[in-house]
Fold each of these.
Amino acid sequence: MSRTLPTRCRRWLDAIALYVDGDLEADLCRALEAHLRQCPDCRLLVDTTRQTLYLYRAASRYPVDLPPDVHRRLFARLPGVGGTRSAAARPNSEAQA
Ligand SMILES: [Zn+2]
């Protein structure tokens, strides 16, 4: 997915963000919807933005509270996430069972 949005669509980016949020003013909303009818790229962008927003809101409504040891083990297995760079290089004495 290295495609970029066509130049003619870039001006709609801000409008799409507002549109998905329901904050786009009526005139612009009609203009954007007219564009969406003939532009699959922007329709895809609207869908993706909606889904992302939905997931983000769902996630913030139901925060997952992992037990500390599960959290530590999970993040220990995710390279580059949390922890320190040298954590993988040295024996993890805490995790020894
Ligand atoms: Zn477009």
Amino acid sequence: MIVTTKQLFQHAYGKYAIGAYNINNLEQCMGLFQGNLASKAPFIIQISKGARSYTHKKMLESMLKTADEIFPDSVFAIHLDHGDEATCMDCIKSGIYSSVMIDASHAPLKENIAITKRVVDAGHAKGLVVEAELGLLKGVEEHVKADEHVFTDPAEAEQFIKESGCDSLACAIGTSHGAFKFKGEQKLRFDILTDIQKRMPGFPLVMHGSSSVPEDEVRRINHFGGAMAGAKGVDENCFLDAAKLGVTKINIDTDGRLVWTRVHREYFCLYPENFDLRPVGKVFMAEYAKFIASKNKKLGSAGQIDSAREFIKKNG
Ligand SMILES: [Zn+2]
């Protein structure tokens, strides 16, 4: 069942966070649905600009439509991750996305508000909901890049939400894109979330760049020929604390890429005579499903699917 992120957020607010997972291909798609169903979790599929151009945007769109038929018990939103205005408008027209993110966070406040408002007006007219971003996350994720954190200012966030009409807001609190998030201890500014929640009670917030970059995953990648020195991510045990402060969506992309890399490096090193892509694909789908299910436990979304489905049916 394809739903909007708004419906999912209303069910989750203050209690748990929904996992937002980026996918690019068929194997990720299958593993994603299997892992969410196995852990009985509602979820968000994120499609980035890079994913849309990796094969063809229509290939992904039809894959997701088909997945909805293959897995009729699933409850999920289809969301554009880090869109510019033109990509948002294209997704709004597509008929398959239920939610888009407009990322104009590099623009000055007034301009960010104006761009976001144009996307909100177009999205709302077609029943889609819109995520926006205020502040900058350090790191690189496809075309999104920043050298330093610019933390979200809570007073500006309040003004931004009111004037742009966005449905959820990605805040910069110290997480970052990519596999190299922290030198030393992680420092997340939960005080920013607390302040925004006080100003805008009930308004859904989003945490980007929240992969945990597990040490064991990195160790196995490096053992089989990888070279990922100093990789470090966000402690997944803080997800539920963030959820209590109004974070309803947590973006996890890098960790999924690590599972792919680890499985493929390991498999072809251990079975050097193999050149069939299917046996390794099967291992990957199962491992990716296991990874998704374990993340959902940390997010608190595991076990919520029936209650979310009923809530959405009742509230429209
Ligand atoms: Zn992001």
